[in-house]
Design goal:
By secondary structure, the protein is mainly beta. Helices cover 6% and strands 42% of the residues. It contains 2 helices and 11 strands. The strands form 3 sheets. A 5-stranded antiparallel β-sheet has the order 6-4-8-2-10, with no helix packed on it. A 4-stranded antiparallel β-sheet has the order 1-9-3-7, with no helix packed on it. A two-stranded parallel ribbon has the order 5-11.
């Protein structure tokens, strides 16, 4: 894998949710995510239709202190919740950003059921208006691997 772009996200306040985001093919991306300031609950969701793990999520606390990283493969949506003020998240991607292929799914989609642990998250307009996984449709098909 060859990373072609580095991204840097800053969230000033605790309780910000960014996501769930991904890019559709042919601009789909794998990501390597780390938190370099503060701490976040980082989440990956399998959105490969037909996968035995379809709509299941995995979450891990990433922090400047624990120095853990999370790899998000193509075919997965990604999001995070800031657990304290002043969080910085950095991630490497293996494909360039494409506005036309940028997609998102509701953070609180009941089919996915991410347990964010926050009742009133701070969200961008883009994330507030995101469709459910079912409404979004199928961008990825599981190929049995």
């Amino acid at each position: 894998m060859e990373f072609v772009q580095d991204n840097h996200s800053y969230s000033e306040r605790k309780g910000v949710i960014r996501g769930l985001h991904y890019q559709a093919p042919p601009f789909d991306q794998s990501k390597l995510v780390r938190c370099t300031r503060g701490s976040v609950l980082d989440v990956a969701v399998d959105i490969r239709h037909g996968s035995p793990n379809y709509a299941k999520w995995f979450g891990l606390v990433l922090s400047a202190d624990n120095k853990k990283q999370l790899f998000i493969p193509k075919g997965f949506a990604h999001g995070f919740l800031t657990l304290e003020d002043g969080c910085e998240v950095q991630y490497k991607v293996d494909n360039f950003y494409s506005y036309e292929h940028d997609r998102n799914i509701r953070y609180d989609d009941s089919e996915i059921g991410v347990e964010w642990g926050v009742s009133e998250p701070l969200l961008s307009d883009k994330d507030l208006k995101a469709p459910s996984l079912r409404e979004r449709g199928t961008d990825f098909i599981w190929e049995g691997r």
